[in-house]
Predict the structure of ABC-type Fe3+-siderophore transport system, permease component.
Amino acid sequence: MSTTTETASKATPQESTEANPEANPTGAPVATLAAKNERRRSLFTSSYPVIMLIALAILLGVTYLSLITGRYPVELDELFRILGKNWFGMDLKVYKPAENMLLTVRIPRLLAAGLIGAALAIAGATFQAVFRNPLVSPYLLGVSQGASVGAASAILLGVGTSIAIQGSALAGGLAAVLLTVSIPRLLKNQSTLMLVLSGVIVGGFGTAALGALKFIANPETQLAQIVFWQMGSLQDVRAEALTQFALVAVPCILLLLAMRWRINILSLGDNEARTLGINLTRTRGITILLATLVTATSVCIGGPISWVGLVIPHLCRLLVGSDTTKLMPLSVLMGASFMMFVDTLARSLTSAEVPLSVLTGFIGTPLYVALLLFGKVRVK
């Protein structure tokens, strides 16, 4: 099955030009024609700085909304007093319970949600560019299933503290990806297709292993904890876990942004990348490693949150096209805003916390359908 995306994929203009030489009467390079066609397809490519400013304004607005909204609302003047006292050393009188809630719960959780959203969005954009498939998600290589098995194992072993679960989830996710990468090497076939198939194999095995762990789990205690973790939540995130997460996620995000020009060349295809002097094996390996690492750390903190790494890159691609030099920075801002908004809903809608994947599914599914209809994605 092949996928053609008029608004997203660079494969379509390349394939049509290669298959029909008359479509390129000027003799211009395929990459140049693809770029021109992509600029025509995107809605606001010429207004990229304006789009970035709007995305930044949305991020700041969602940040403010998240800080004051919740089961315990915080007034604007109280928020400023708390931030002024703790961040700028000002001698201000504050309401102590509100101060404790903001500093120990709400702000760490807000930052974690923003980082997770940015990480999953840029990982999704990276995988979609590297594999030249707009239907690829950050969980392609089995990191979600591996992390779920690791977290479930920690719960069954009775070390159900948040730090232990996060560490086990990270180890399980990285082990799954390592196994996925090792299979093509063992078979001496390191093509992109074989890597994708290896991810499917490892993901299927991880799903089966997780089902076995659920079967033997205590249905009154352990099973509920496993299921809730799988649906995603940030209720246990505190400053220590956030710091550890940021030490891995932020450098990976920055490195991916620094490599976005090379990733853009990879998305043109292997032949074009070789012609432009790109070391395919090294560049593809580094980008996959960084995207996988940032995805694994995100999963270990918040669980396997669905749709973010698939929907956000599509939305950004509709706005600025498939040029990753523009797509990836916008994905970071939009992904952070989306996850911060979803987490605010999760802790505000009801007295009990709503799992994140429930909300991302309800929001992401219709949004993705709308993007497919608007972008005219066809599956042949």
